[in-house]
Amino acid sequence: MSPIPIQLGRLVLTGIALAAGVGAVLVAWPKPKAAEPAVAPAPTTAADPVVRPDLSLPLPQPALPAPIADPPLGGAASEALLAAFWGAQWPQVRAELEGTGLDVEHLPPIWPWEVAAPMHDWYLTLTAPDRIEMVFGSMFRWPSWSFWFHGRACTTTKGQWKTEGAFLEDATSLPGAHLLDPETTHAILAEVAPLNRELEGLLLEYIAELEVRLRQKFRAGEIERAPLRLRPEVRRPKFGASLYGVRPSLLGWQIEDTLTRSEAPALSEMLDRIERLKLERSAAVHSLVAARLHPAD
To answer: What pLDDT score does 197 carry?
Structure first.
């Protein structure tokens, strides 16, 4: 593919929601007012180089591209863009879209790709303050809560504070761990703290490098992209073959940006080291809790 231009276009976002993990992005489409847009030209301009984020500094929140006053029309304008993008494949793609229940006669707006591309690039900023904790927490798994990140206590999915004892019981699956007195619980957590600090530093380094590699692939055009949605044959790598992947839908375009182990062997080795540290931590916590619960065994 040709490289993708990352110069900031002007776009309208009236609402945006980021799904947890590596899911989709939902955009609330504003009421169209503009004239029918031209079909997005194939990108030909190389993008700026990706700068590795410095996680020793406070991370700025990446700004959204500025809004435009007039969004594109949907309906026939979107159908024309789809037909131009797919060319001879359009009749088959149209049938596939209709097979999913999509009304091709009443399509949503599709922004030109040069406008949508900066938003997709923005979404790949994994180290943004409102995203890094989500990525970090899903990988840190202490055991299933974002407990350690920046000194925050773990919470339940309902946002209620979870006691450290109950947390240890979750971590070890040892009944009775929640009955340990606070002094014992804090002592166990303190003994595991060096492992968590090592794991935290390694994970932050991994996420920063992951962001660089994903954005490099995107800016080089080494991704799958399509207006509205990707075709069914665009499949993600088999489980265990990929390091990380995203498939967001923004401004009428869906992309697939996945980094595989074979593409990034150094990152693959780092991930294996992270998993070994997590196993070491789990064994240590289990041993410490069991020793306190059954000191005579």
So the answer is: 86
Convert the pLDDT of each residue in 170-225 to its tens digit: 667 777 777 788 888 888 888 888 988 898 889 989 999 999 999 999 999 999 99
- Judged against a pLDDT cut of 50, whether residue 49 lies above it is answered with yes
In this predicted structure, what is the pLDDT of residue 6?
Answer: 38
Q: CA triplet 78, 231, 119: central angle to 5 degrees?
A: 60
Strand partners, 244: 259
Burial (0-12, 13-18, 19+ Cβ within 10 Å), 159:
exposed
Residues 6+ apart with CB under 8 A from 151: none
List Cβ<8 Å contacts ≥24 apart for 53-61. Answer: 53/127, 53/208, 53/211, 53/212, 55/127, 55/204, 55/205, 55/208, 59/127, 59/128, 59/129, 59/132, 60/129, 61/128, 61/129, 61/130
**Lowest-confidence pick of 93-102, 122-131, 241-250:** 122-131
Q: Please state, in angstroms and rounded to a whole number, the distance separating the CA atoms of residues 293 and 136.
A: 31
The DSSP 8-state label assigned to residue 14 in this structure reads: S
Helices (H), 7-152: 76-86, 90-99, 113-123, 129-140
Residue among 264, 248, 42, 44 nearest 126 (CA): 248
Residues present in the chain in total: 297
What phi and psi values does residue 203 have, to the nearest 5 degrees? Answer: -65, -40
For the record, the structure tokens of 123 come out as: 């979404």
Does residue 1 contact residue 222 with C-beta atoms inside 8 Å? yes
Amino acid letter, 46: A
Please give the full DSSP string across 140-175, using - where no structure is assigned: H-SSSS--SGGGPPPB-TTS-B--HHHHHHHHH--T
- pLDDT digit string (tens) for 63-98? 666 655 466 778 999 999 999 999 999 999 999 999
Selection from 196, 44, 22 nearest residue 126 by Cα: 22
